[in-house]
Amino acid sequence: MALEITLATFFVFVLTFLYILNVLKSWNKSNTANSPPGPRRWPLIGNLHILNLKKPQLTYLELAEKYGPVFTFYMGTKKMVVLAGYETVRDALVSNAEVFGGRGRLKIFHDMDKGMGILFSHGETWKAMRRFTISTLRDYGMGRSTIEEKITDECVYLNNMLASFKGNPFDSNMILNAATANIIVSILLGYRMDYNDPQFTRLLCLINENVRIAGMPMVALYNIFPFLGFFPGSHKIIVKNVVEQCEFITKTFVEHLKNLDENDQRSFIDAFLVRQKEEAGNPLSYFHNGNLTRVVRNLFSAGMETTSTTLRWGLLLMIKYQNIQEKVQEEISRVIGTAQPMYSHRVQMPFTNAVIHEIQRFSDIVPLNLGHETTKDVTFKGYFIPKGTYIIPLLSSVLRDKTQFEKPDEFFPNHFLDSNGKFIKKEAFMPFSAGWRACAGETLAKMELFIFFTSLLQKFNFGLPPGVTDVDLTSVVGLTNAPKPQMMCVTPRM
What are the CA-CA distances from residue 341 to residues 152, 153, 337, 346 (Å)? Predict the structure, then answer.
């Protein structure tokens, strides 16, 4: 027994010694290159002691003021480079798209998808899945009238649901989740799901929970110190939820296999299964069940979360700024009347279009972006950044860049209007990121936001419940910047 304790102590000592040597090695190596400047770091913890773990973008915005648009930040022993401001982020993601086009590697994302799918994959897997995904989404109507019909049909279900509350207070979260999720579900599966379907609501709850807890401090610490994985915590809940999502998706495409008709492909899953059969003899094919499960999971999550969260912000902002809500409704009445809003109407509705863009800018849904990674050594803005460096293209700093927006910290639709009231595009409008890793569903999301938002304001007035005097525009901790749960009321307009 004593010998076992002695041996265990010896091995712990050796492992600790080797770990410290590795830390010192990385420390010395990182200081030899012409690295971007940054705050002084401490051994093992790096710069964690100055980081706002709940809202890290606030720390990075402050540091950008001190160290400039390219600076180094250490999460434990992991070196990260933060890019701040429109000019710098655009230069990296667009002008140097290939170099900054890798996906940043975090332990929790690897645990979730094992390097498969589209969101967190790398190299040839990512290229193959993204290429197939974009072309297939287009085949199933993304950006065309066929998908517009699905959105307008879903508006009817959504409006009926809101009308059923008969003016009583309700929380819009799950309802908007279901409505926006049904658009991507119709593409992935070939049909929509009922808002009260227990399987559907369970999937929505799993996604909501993962998005919320993925931004929690415990998960951030797990990414920095993976040995914490032995302990119970949020990281284990995330993986468990992903497993449950994948089980549902697996059952779904097994059902599709039973009735698969190569000449009558009804959904994204059908198209993938047909491609899988075509490449059945290729041992290096990327079209295997692992990638199918993860791509579908990625699209389901991403296709629902950011769009529904943006709509929630939009309704809350309309409640807070009643004068803007009324002006949007006046434009809707003048241009559309009682007809169904269509995406083409946006050209005739500069104010509504500007309001939707300002909702996206102000709400800042993905403040840190999803992390990038350099694919090769690069000298950028005079600094050397090695291959494999984790990059944070700080979208908050782009959407609130003082050189690009007159009132960056205020909700101000005139950011997207000229002196004559005409809509103007802004190059710094990057809620979907840019370059190689820009959102694959950007076109679909834009169409959804305009049609859903316009349809809702056409049918209803939005306000606060009796006794509530103001809207709370603070956000909750999470992977995305979501508003706090709040009750609202609607009254029919026509």
Answer: 8, 11, 9, 9
Mean pLDDT of the chain: 91
- β-strands 390-393, 78-83: how paired? parallel
Phi-psi region of 366 (alpha: psi -120 to 50; beta: other; left: phi over 0): beta
Tokens encoding 157 = 């279900």
Quick: pLDDT tens for 315-327: 999 999 999 999 9
Largest CA distance in the chain: 87
pLDDT per position as a tens digit, 146-158: 899 999 999 999 9
Classify burial at 321, counting beta carbons within 10 Å of its beta carbon; exposed 0-12, middle 13-18, buried 19 or more: middle
Phi-psi region of 275 (alpha: psi -120 to 50; beta: other; left: phi over 0): alpha
pLDDT, tens digit, for every residue of 356-375? 999 999 999 999 999 999 99
Residue 138 has what pLDDT?
87
d(CA 299, CA 285): 21
Listed residue (53, 73, 54, 55) closest to 63, CA to CA: 73
Q: What is the mean pLDDT of residues 107-130?
A: 94
d(CA 159, CA 33): 58
Residue whose pair of structure tokens reads 């579900």 in the numeric block: 185
Is 70 exceeded by the pLDDT of residue 143? Answer: no
> Token pair 């269509």 is at which residue?
342
Bridge partners of 475, per DSSP, are 483
Structure tokens at 343: 């995406």
Most confident of 68-77, 181-190, 273-282: 68-77
CA-to-CA separations, 445 to 42, 204, 241, in angstroms, rounded:
42, 18, 25
> What pTM was estimated for this model as a whole?
0.91
Q: Using CB atoms within 10 Å of the CB of residue 265, give its burial: 0 to 12 exposed, 13 to 18 middle, 19+ buried.
A: buried
Residues 6+ apart with CB under 8 A from 307: 180, 445, 448, 449
Asked whether the predicted pLDDT for residue 26 surpasses 80, the reply is no
The strand pairing partners of 460, in sequence order, are 492
- Contact (Cβ atoms closer than 8 angstroms) between residue 38 and residue 72: yes
Record the tokens describing residue 184, joined without a space. Answer: 């991507």
What spatial distance separates the first Cα and last Cα of the chain, rounded to whole Å?
A: 82
Q: Give the span between the Cα atoms of 97 and 442, in whole angstroms.
A: 18
